[in-house]
Amino acid sequence: MGHARGPDPSAGYAALVKYRRLAAAASFAVLLSLNTLGNAHAETRVTDLNSTTCVPDGNGATADGNVPPRAWHLDRLDMQAAWGLATGANIKVAVIDTGVAATGTPFFAGNDKVETLDVLDGMNEDDMKAGGVDCTHGTAVASLIAAARPDGRDVDVRTDFAGIAPDATIISYRVLRVSERQEGQENTPLGPTIAAVRDATARGVNIINLSQSVDGSDPLLRSYRDAVADALKAGIVVVAAAGNYPDVMAPSYPGAFEGVISVGSSTRTDAASARSLANTGAVIGAPGEDLMALRPSKSRENAIYKNQSYADGIDGTSFAAPIVSGVVALMLEADSTMTPDEVRRRLMETADPPPAAVPDSRIGYGIVNPMRALTGVARPQEGNPGADTDVLVDYLPTSREPDMVPALIAVSVGAGAVVLAAVGLVMAISLPAATRRNKS
User: Most buried of 54, 139, 170, 436 (most Cβ within 10 A)?
Assistant: First the structure.
């Protein structure tokens, strides 16, 4: 009768080598997947967007079907006087948003007024079900910046509506699939926005408008910050919405990134809007309540303006930001040598001061003043005595840079857990098998 003997040492060594190779392969796979996650935006393509695929919104009327009203924010900012100095000619503004409906929109008439690009690789199944591309939010934003006034005249004789910089051009990037995310819908990945910022920087635009925001938990936030920082280094002014969540205490990005002009919203009575986020370190405010703008329109023959659909009563920092982007376009036309930091400082120094302390937690150094921003005349030292002071909050200090340590720890722990799981699986399979093969 034979007796039991231990495993052959050479066979055990072979099993150990096999285990190490599999463990190394598992570790590499984990690191590769993490690297792919962190650089997903690098593989995103930028293609042309056919704006005829935009879903038309309305049928040549305002939201309630009435004749379009006058745009009160143009009177409030005294744009007729400002347009005597600059109109945004030769200035390019990147609108990184939903799509923009240039086709069928008389305010965007002209082949070189709006260039429409897509960073979402065309329409998906949801777009098909909706009948086309959602261009509502982006169209409103672009129109507030650069809706045209051909030969200095109103496009639609029924209203004085126009963009703040009516002679500027728009490069539109579709990075958001929906104008308003519904409950249960997933957040749009940040990768396309980062790719759009990179592409706009490479194209040498003058201004980037970002009427969107994310919190500090997004895994691509550092890449986003780096892309914005590179745009600023290239001399591009970056304007962003402060956000519309007054009860949120955490900073919102890109508004809270260093060097970005974060824009809060003000009311008809020059008060800070109650919905405007109070913890992003807003630099400046602009009209952002009860505004009118353009909607995607249905193209019709033999119609000058009757095919244009309007949105009225819209509000939010998403629409205050493009007003400031328009003012920046005027400033850069008047003085193309201004750096992003100089533009930012000029806006702060020339704003109409808020009714409370400076800076106000929601509208920063006050409401943008186009004429003073163009001429460099400093603001008065006291607030507007007629401003509504009902909406006041204490200034909330904000951390300008996201704390990435918790995210990095979580990623490391997750990677370690995957590696350990792979190691355990390999040992469970390889070592017992080696023992069985060497047993008499």
Answer: 139
